[in-house]
Amino acid sequence: MSAALTVSDLSLAIGGAKILDGINLEVSRHETLGIIGPNGAGKTSLFNLLSGLLAPTRGTIHLGATDITQFSPFNRAKAGIARTFQTSSVFNNLTLLENVRIAAQANLGRSMNLTRNAYTFKEAVELAHQSLEQLGLKGRENQVAGSLSHGDKRRLEIAIILASKAEIILLDEPMAGLSVEHVPELVEIIRSLVAVHEKTVLIVEHHMDVILGLADRIAVLNYGELVVCDSPDKVIANPAVQSAYLGVGL
Ligand SMILES: Nc1ncnc2c1ncn2[C@@H]1O[C@H](COP(=O)(O)OP(=O)(O)O)[C@@H](O)[C@H]1O
Ligand SMILES: [Mg+2]
Predict the structure, then answer these.
(1) Residue of the CA atom closest to atom 5 of ligand 1
(2) Is the entire prediction scored with pTM above 0.85?
(3) Which of 11, 40, 98, 131 fits 162 for a cystine, CB–CB 3.0-4.6 Å?
(4) Residue nearest ligand 1's atom 26 by CA
């Protein structure tokens, strides 16, 4: 069986500067891959390449057996890669239900015009209600998204992802800006993406306890290079990792 996501020799140079250099990674289905590294290591750039916001200078990205290196961000989303925690993924003036319904509608592969097809509309509404309920947002469907707290907005973003039926979920510092007491709650939600919803998760996070609690394997980036990708125990014990990163973080 092919990996869920395969990155081969992926490289990015901007204006002569090497941002990422020769990254090779295989992510299995239903795996949680933690990605760590110092600021500027290239973690967000890697997500930008995976989601199609940036084109690589070299290398390929496969989703299953499909080469998606040349796919637009829209087509990657359709193929099953979703990215969260960008404010653009939530429409503040729309209700929670509308936000999730639009994602569901897009997933059902029909027009984004929600009034056009009664049957699809009904399906999308059902899927949206289901996703909101799974994220503990039942009863708040008609509230506008802009009124949500930070933590609840992240729940909404995950509800949107569930409704979109994406297989691979990229989380870039999901805990950022969240007050400490809300961290365990979001960790459990992220865990459920794999455990309950059978997603494949790539998570960039500075909180080492979060990464250690969630990740099956950890990839360490430093100066645009992949230092190591291995089990949490082996990564922590790796001398190159300790000098590059963990010496500061742990
Ligand atoms: N669009 C860009 N143009 C030029 N340099 C960039 C651009 N995006 C990122 N960089 C540089 O690439 C490096 C990696 O950045 P980034 O991927 O954001 O790192 P991380 O997410 O690991 O902190 C940094 O040195 C950053 O300044
Ligand atoms: Mg970043």
Answers:
(1) 14
(2) yes
(3) 131
(4) 40
